Amino acid sequence: PLSTYFETVSLAVQSLLVxxxxxxxxxxSTTNAPLIMAAILAYCGTLYAIVxxxxxxxxxxxxxxxxxxxxxxxxxxxxxNLRRRSSGGWSTxxxxxxxxGNGLRVFTTFTLTKDGLLLxxxxxxFLLNGLLLVQTLVYPQEPEASSSTDEAAAAG
Length: 156
Known about the structure:
Elements: H1 2-25, H2 33-53, H3 56-72, H4 75-84, H5 92-113, H6 116-138, H7 145-155
């Protein structure tokens, strides 16, 4: 549906803008901003070509791949937190907002479009972000490196 398309494009533009701002404004960054901008433009051009020239079934395959990659990306963090019995520095607020956001997307997708692929992706995101939220509530936060250094300096 058109609303989902515009939402996805809006989020992509916002993400690119944040990436560009971080790259340009970060004084400690060793990245080459013109190279990153060229890569972003090449990506956008390729994406435009795919969207305008590709058949509908290939776009559905790309959407499924994107959904799968976003979902699978959380699994290593969940496993690492479980193995270390720590939240891994993951913020409770971030996990809460991600869980609520995916929950809202599940609701709106179910009520507005009933798109099974989107519903599955948002449901998986809701579940995995919910697990991250539980981990932040159950496991303690890892101590920051600077605080342990400060404690050692104060003791010595």
